[in-house]
Write a structure and sequence with these properties.
The complex is a heterodimer of chains A (about 110) and B (about 450). In chain A, helix 3 packs antiparallel against helix 4. In chain A, about 75% of the residues lie in helices and about 0% in strands. Chain B is elongated, with a radius of gyration of 26 Å. In chain B, helix 4 packs parallel to helix 8. Chain B has a six-stranded parallel sheet with strand order 3-2-1-4-5-6. The longest helix of chain B has 28 residues. The chains are: A mainly alpha (about 110), B alpha/beta (about 450).
Chain lengths: ~110, ~450
């Protein structure tokens, strides 16, 4: 990938991120923050490549921690986002599955 | 050779698919109707990219990779499924910190290995590494504060100067490493030590109330760090996903700061946002007028329209399930119910919606500030439960008040206002609430959950 192509990708992705979020209602801010937190869990693929190319014990240790943390970011981000969004239902859906709403009481 | 080419083509195609699934997923997550499917789309994208990466040419250490993935995933999955909905903000901080740490780890492996021949590549690795490390240690402090592990906000004179010095040290070491003048292991270690320290010293002075903005900022920073490390590794999926999160997260941070009436600079550099700080403003005159639950219940049962204004106090009292039970009774009587949510009603914007959704409240009954404010004039009753500053009219007209200018819910415009409150005394920020002293306001004293239970009994007996 040449530098200028990388910069094009960077610019277009930045606009995309802004536009995708721009019209989000406040009620979804927390799930969306959690969802975008999950998306940067893609760092996992980079951490895998870094550990895959590590040779010395120091590099392997750091790479191992990197993969461990990245997997935590991706999987944890998915778990909490999915739990939150699962609960969002409209009045119509609520009436259809009467009484099925009060999940996760504590 | 031929085999390598086809493996590489497969990986690139997978990453393209992943980028598509991520963007579509985020798009779907920005509307309540499609939000649930959005996370499934994004999740599928993550799975595709992770599986494809196992076929990356020239990789070794597969056993280590698999062990790390399995342990990291298992711990995060269990903690993520078990955490209470009230504690979601600190879990987001924790998972975000892990992502930042991973980006820093990639940079560290590349720099120790000397894998970057060009100055540009090494510079990107250094910048991504600094940002990732700051996000890592800063997010851990944010987690500690919200979880109640760190109660004090460490503040002393010259703190900003110290932060600047640490930042300068990180930049100088980074320049030495990136330019190849002193790309030794010692310099690389010093670079990361300074960056981690900067995250700690930047976040420690910030109070708990400002943490949502800080977490959102670190979320955007982690995205940026991931994008930079994506450039280093020539990984398009990381560049696109990281940049999208970086820009979306920056926008989200601005929206949150605006909703809280704080500028980002204020949050980061002023060290406010603790409970019980500034108490100022003009004294409020008038008296507090109590009401019995039975009377309040009758008032609501015969109303045409009731607007509920919940605050975090409601969630602390675990009263949201009872509140929804009360609302269902009223809806059955033909009363129109609306929930009015201030952006900072929960512990971060949108958090209250999650807590209400957990109790079973349909999202179409929930309105945010802009939608609902004109409706208060047509409401017979505004029921305030666990909210305080966000309905305080002094924010509109008292220039000397610390919350002057903050957007508020116009609950004072309703024909009757009922405030459920544990006792007398000022709220979270220590500012007297003029709403409580208005002629059309009645105070229903008691624990949130018990008071709502009494209201339910009262409505049932009508």
């Amino acid at each position: 990938m040449t530098g200028i192509v990388a910069l094009y990708i960077f610019m277009l992705a930045a606009f995309t991120g802004y536009e995708v979020i721009a019209r989000v209602p406040v009620i979804l801010h927390t799930p969306l923050m959690s969802g975008s937190n999950f998306v940067h869990g893609i760092v996992l693929v980079g951490a895998m490549v870094a550990l895959g190319s590590a040779t010395t014990p120091l590099e392997k240790s750091i790479g191992f921690i990197g993969v461990l943390l990245a997997a935590g970011n991706a999987v944890g981000g998915y778990a909490v986002t999915e739990r939150m969004l699962e609960m969002f239902k409209s009045s119509g859906a609520r009436a259809a599955g009467k009484g099925g709403g009060a999940k996760g009481t504590h | 050779m031929d085999l390598h080419f086809s493996a590489d083509a497969l990986i690139q195609a997978s990453y393209l698919l992943t980028a598509f699934l991520f963007i579509m997923g985020l798009k779907r997550m920005s509307s309540p109707v499609t939000a649930r499917s959005g996370i499934l789309w994004a999740g599928a994208g993550m799975l595709v990219a992770t599986l494809a990466t196992f076929f990356y040419p020239g990789m070794s250490n597969y056993p280590l990779i698999i062990v790390a993935v399995v342990i990291g995933s298992a711990v995060a999955w269990i903690s993520g499924r078990r955490v209470a909905m009230t504690n979601i903000p600190q879990m987001i901080a924790l998972y975000n910190g892990m992502g930042g740490g991973a980006a820093a780890a990639i940079a560290a492996v590349e720099l120790y290995r000397g894998g970057q021949q060009s100055t540009a590549g090494a510079t990107l690795a250094v910048v991504g590494g600094i940002i990732g490390a700051v996000s890592f240690s800063g997010s851990l402090i944010a987690f500690g504060k919200l979880q109640g592990l760190i109660r004090k906000s460490l503040r002393f004179g010259g703190q900003q100067l110290l932060n600047l010095l640490i930042l300068a040290a990180a930049i100088v070491l980074g320049a030495l490493v990136a330019s190849g003048v002193n790309a030794t292991a010692a310099a690389v270690s010093g670079l990361f030590a300074a960056s981690l320290l900067l995250g700690l010293s930047m976040t420690l002075p910030i109070g708990g109330a400002d943490m949502p903005v800080v977490i959102s900022l670190y979320n955007a920073l982690t995205g940026l760090a991931v994008a930079f490390e994506g450039f280093v590794l020539g990984n398009a999926a990381m560049i696109i996903a990281g940049t999208v999160v970086g820009s979306a997260g920056t926008l989200l941070t601005q929206l949150m700061a605006k909703a809280m009436n704080r500028s980002l600079g204020n949050v980061l550099f002023s060290g406010f946002g603790d409970t019980g700080t500034a108490v100022a403003g003009t004294a409020v005159t008038g008296s507090l007028k109590p009401i019995e639950a039975a009377d309040a219940g009758v008032m609501m049962a015969f109303a045409q329209k009731v607007i509920i204004v919940p605050g975090y106090g409601m969630a602390v009292a675990q009263a949201q399930h009872k509140v929804w039970e009360l609302c269902q009774l009223l809806i059955d009587r033909g009363v129109t119910i609306r929930f009015a949510i201030h952006p900072v009603a929960g512990r971060m914007p949108g958090h209250m919606n999650v807590l209400l959704a957990e109790a079973g409240v349909p999202y179409d009954l929930i309105a945010d500030l802009d939608e609902i404010n004109a409706e208060f004039e047509t409401a017979d009753v505004a029921l305030i439960i666990g909210a305080n500053d966000v309905v305080n009219p002094v924010a509109r007209n008292d220039k000397s008040s610390p919350i002057y200018g903050m957007p508020i819910l116009n609950a004072d415009k309703a024909k009757n206002v009922i405030v459920i409150k544990r006792g007398q005394g000022a709220g979270f920020s220590g500012i007297e609430n003029a709403l409580f002293y208005l002629d059309n306001t009645r105070m229903l004293y008691g624990d949130g959950q018990a008071a709502v239970a009494e209201l339910i009994a009262a409505v049932k007996s009508v």
